[in-house]
Fold this sequence. Notes:
This protein has helices at residues 10-22, 25-40, 100-104, and strands at 5-8, 50-51, 60-65, 79-86, 91-98. It is an alpha+beta fold. It has one domain: 2-Layer Sandwich (YaeB-like fold), CATH 3.30.2310. Strands 1-5-4-3-2 form a five-stranded mixed sheet. The chain is globular, with a radius of gyration of 14 Å.
Amino acid sequence: MRRLRFIPRKDFQKDLKELARIDKTIIDDVMADIDLLCENHQLPAEFMDHALTGRLEGYRDFHVRTPEKGKSPVESNDVVVIYRIVENKLIVVGLRVGSHSKLFNGLDSSVKYKKQ
């Protein structure tokens, strides 16, 4: 199986820089997980990788960090990567990275997200 090529969108780079201000180790975690996805074309179950619906139909997300039970989600412990795989080109397109509240707050499921 050929390795997928990672091509981040500008939003992804911006979000990653923002998260690095909170905790620099987030960059290493995100990039290691993306590398694993590029290598294996899928992630182990602990990443809770799943398809998205509504406005983000056609995209998937996986969890880099999940808040421990009983702890409130904050930017440093609730890190989700939204992505899609363009199979015919073998490209992983990084879309957004950040907490659930940041990424999914206010999404109107009746409006499609513009795929780039």
